[in-house]
Predict the 3D structure of the following.
Amino acid sequence: MIGNELVLGPFQGPEACFRIGYCKGVCGTAWKEGRTVVVPDVELFPGHIACSSLSRSEIVVPVRKGGEIAAVLDIDSKELATFDATDALWLEKIATLY
C-alpha cells in the first residue's frame, strides 16, 4: 500500500491491475471495511474493476500487521461461486501468519 492505493503483486497466474484505489473494487472494499469479501459473481459486485476478463468470482482477505491492514490477499476464479465461508475462514487464518 502506498498512500491511498494498493500496489498489486506478486502474481500467480495472469497479471491483472497494478494499482487500485482505496475503497475501489473488491480489493479496495475489503481494505476500507477491514473484512473478508466473498463475491460469487463479480459482474454483480457494484464498482467491480475488471482487471481480467477471465475472473468470475473472487475472495479478498485483509492482512494485518500491528493491527493495521498492510496488504490484501486477492484470489480470483474463472468459475462462478468458487469461494465460501470455509475458504474465508482458512484464508483468514493464513493471513494471520504475516
